[in-house]
Write a structure and sequence with these properties.
The protein has helices at 43-46, 57-74, and strands at 10-16, 21-26, 32-35. The protein has a 3-stranded mixed beta sheet with strand order 2-1-3, with no helix packed on it. The chain has 75 residues and is α+β, with helices and mostly antiparallel strands. It has a domain at 1-48: Rhinovirus 14, subunit 4.
Length: 75
């Protein structure tokens, strides 16, 4: 195996938007990595449903289609 063709594999600090931090190894040139969802806050692993709403998209959807769902439920 050639020694000079492989990228550097070093420890990287990962920070999630929920505040969880951990250390992993990566070939990234950065020392820190910022992510939106990790195993501590992902619904599959935590068992809790949490909506990640950026720029009010969930509220816009509910305002636009909320009246439609109420009309169909009443029939």
């Amino acid at each position: 195996m050639k020694q000079t063709i492989h990228p550097n594999y070093k420890e990287v600090s990962v920070t999630c938007s929920c505040g969880n931090t951990f250390v992993t190894k990566s070939t990234l040139a950065k020392e820190a990595l910022h992510i939106e969802v990790c195993s501590a806050c992902h619904p599959f692993y935590s068992g809790k449903q949490r909506l990640v709403d950026s720029a009010g998209r969930v509220d816009k959807f509910r305002q636009k289609y909320g009246a439609f769902s109420k009309r169909t439920a009443a029939k």
